[in-house]
Amino acid sequence: MKRRNTAAKQTILDILQASRSVPLSQEDIEQKVAGKMNRVTVYRVLNSFYEDGYIHKILADDGKYYFAICLNCREDDHHHDHFHFRCLNCQKVECLQEEVKVQLPGGYRQESVNCLITGYCPECA
Amino acid sequence: MKRRNTAAKQTILDILQASRSVPLSQEDIEQKVAGKMNRVTVYRVLNSFYEDGYIHKILADDGKYYFAICLNCREDDHHHDHFHFRCLNCQKVECLQEEVKVQLPGGYRQESVNCLITGYCPECA
DNA sequence: TTTGTTAATGCAATTGAATTGCAATAATAA
DNA sequence: TTATTATTGCAATTCAATTGCATTAACAAA
Ligand SMILES: [Mn+2]
Ligand SMILES: [Mn+2]
Ligand SMILES: [Zn+2]
Ligand SMILES: [Zn+2]
Question: Which residues does the record give as Fe cation binding sites (chains A, B) (predicted)?
Fold first, then answer.
């Protein structure tokens, strides 16, 4: 009896599923569930999903966290090492296909990656 | 008469100069200037340096901003497009030599880059 | 050197995303 | 059905960062 299935979790999961390669901010999700649950619940559900490895979390240079379903990850093999993109005009964040490949200097051990490119998307450029 | 030279600015500039490839957080700098100036002044000086292009600013995945002197930039050519590294143990942040090279999908325009690798540095690994 | 303008500063108050404490609620194992 | 305890809502709190405003001081002009 570790985690329980609840309406709140299912609702948020559905929202994330429907936005596969477009990470959503806490605020984005709050708006979509407005009235259905408390904002603190959104925080806690997102954090539990993240802890359990169902979603990945990126900190964008607007200072907000964005969350997206893990796509090419398996329980035993997480690799959230792709770039993300944020549009300065429409604010949308996207997962890019390209993986981050860094040649670290000797002795450094890589644990995780948080790479964000900021600019203008095709619709706004 | 745009910007004025003040003791506060000179002090902070000296600190950043002495820490060339090791970006410092607001908090780091505050400690070094403790008693000499107000913390709000530190914020404002750092922001003015950043606006004027003297330093670059990165948001690390600990949620804090880190600042470092621009090294290979000229007035007309800024390129803060290198990776950064943060050690999970000693918390130190470093500028890496390697530049970020992303092949953006068609139509996307890149403006800036905020790429951080998190892991363990040689001393802590 | 003196003076006037206004950028810079200190201090207190405020913002806003994120977190925490706690009592009430509800999922689920027994 | 019942007992256990994870989950939720609500209020309060945290903490870095920002803002307002009166005071100070840099520096251009006289
Ligand atoms: Mn994943
Ligand atoms: Mn630079
Ligand atoms: Zn856009
Ligand atoms: Zn270290």
Answer: 79, 81, 98
